[in-house]
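Structural prep section.
Before we set up the soaks we want a predicted structure of the protein with magnesium ion in place, mainly to decide which crystallisation condition to try first. Input record follows.
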Amino acid sequence: MPTIIAILNQKGGVGKTTTAVTLASGLARMGNQVLLIDLDTQGNVADSLGLPHGDDLRRLLSPDLRCTLEQVVTPSGLDHLDVIRSDKSTTALKQTLVGVNLREYILADVLQGSGYDVIALDCAPSVDLLHFVALVAADFLLIPTRLDKLAVNGVRDALQTLAALKRISHCQVAGILPTFYERVTLESHEQLVHLARTFGRLVLPPIPQDTQCRVASRYGKTLWEHEPNAKALIGYDQGSKHIGGYIQVLDRVKELL
Ligand SMILES: Nc1ncnc2c1ncn2[C@@H]1O[C@H](COP(=O)(O)OP(=O)(O)OP(=O)(O)O)[C@@H](O)[C@H]1O
Ligand SMILES: [Mg+2]
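Run finished without errors. Recording the tokens verbatim:
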């Protein structure tokens, strides 16, 4: 059975897609068979991997098309990593699903028994049906959040969405991931402390702010390919250790598999 991880926060631009792509490609580099599913009409997963947009998700979940997972997956071009792309057609998909019985289970059913080790779900920045669909399918929820004044509210909203589904979802919170962390600014640090006081051990070591994230996605490359020494990947030097960065998150995710 695959381990399914939803990357979700109702707030926009907090690093969801960067996190989903970096973790999915990182796990694939370790030899896991990974599927990355884009649940957002923006289609940013395809952009980040240098692929054309596609309606894979609509074809997979439209009850009238009934395509199988094998029929719709797109090879990412990277070893062990497949993707299900999304595009504007996902808007029509959401409208179609409104009238479907047991629609919250539609993705969970399709993914059951798939041959992947890990499936990562990149969610859109709005509460919609596909958030519920993702949280019903997922084993774990990872909540990336920026470190700003409203960050705590955004995380609470995501936790409340999950709590509202507790009768139909077995999903557990894997962690809250602070992103865009600027070690030199007092505001970033204070917000990180505030987040840690509010949510305790759920808060993971932060991902540094790093322009390489934007550059990599502009070239359609993962951070691992574009700049393996990027701060966002390896975190900050602290004595002989590195603190934060996607490598540390990857270690945490591996413990869940
Ligand atoms: N740690 C980081 N440091 C600097 N820039 C980053 C970092 N993480 C992501 N970015 C950049 O910030 C922008 C938003 O990131 P991303 O697309 O991952 O967020 P998102 O939460 O998926 O956004 P949306 O809500 O629109 O789906 C992108 O241009 C991305 O390259
Ligand atoms: Mg995104």
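Observations: The first strand starts at residue 3 and ends at 7.
Flagged for discussion at group meeting.
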